[in-house]
Amino acid sequence: MTETRTKTIAELAREFDVTTRTIRFYEAEGMLSPERRGTQRIYHPRDRVRLRLILRGKRLGLTLAEIREIIDLYDSEPGERAQLSLFLDKIAERQAALEQKRQDIAETLMELEQLEANCRARLSELGDGNG
C-alpha cells in the first residue's frame, strides 16, 4: 500500500529514525523540497521516497553527489530507466570497491597470522627466559 498522506518533519524523522537536523540538511542540499505552510514543512510521499533513496544510498556507501545524480535522473528524460541504469552502475562500482577491500583484508589477515606464527616460533626458540 502506497503512503499518500503528508507528514511533518518530526513524523518523517521518527519514521526513518533520523534527526530533524538530518532532514533539514538534505533539504538544504536540495535533495528534499517540502511544501511550506508558514514555518511548518509539509513532506509529501515524493519526499519520503527521496529520503528513503538517500538513506539507502548512504548505507551503500555512495556519496551525496552520486545519490543526487541518481535521484535527479528520475525527474528528467528518460526518467526511471536512466535512474535505474545509473544505479546499477553505482552498485557495480561499490561491489567492486568492497570486493577489493575484502581481498585487502584477507591478505592483511594472512600476513598477520604469518607474523604471529613467526613471533611465537621465535619465542619458543628463546625459551621461557629463565635461563
Which helices and strands appear, and what pairs or packs with what?
Blueprint (H helix, E strand, L loop, with lengths): L8 H8 L3 H9 L6 E3 L2 E3 L2 H15 L4 H11 L5 H47 L5
Antiparallel strand pairs: 1-2
Quick take:
With 131 residues, the chain is mostly helical. It is 69% helix and 5% strand.
Helix/strand-derived category reads mainly alpha
Calculate the mean pLDDT score and round it. Answer: 88
Percent range of helical residues: 55-70%
> Low-confidence stretches at least 5 residues in length (pLDDT < 50)?
none
- Tell me the CATH architecture of the domain at 1-59: Orthogonal Bundle
The level 1 CATH classification of the domain at 1-59 is Mainly Alpha
Order of adjacent strands in the largest pleated sheet: 1-2
**Termini, distance in Å?**
77 Å
Major beta sheet, specifics?
A: 2 strands, antiparallel
| Shape call | elongated
Provide the gyration radius in Å.
24 Å
Entry keywords:
single chain; Multidrug-efflux Transporter Regulator, Chain: A, Domain 2; two-stranded antiparallel sheet; 5 helices
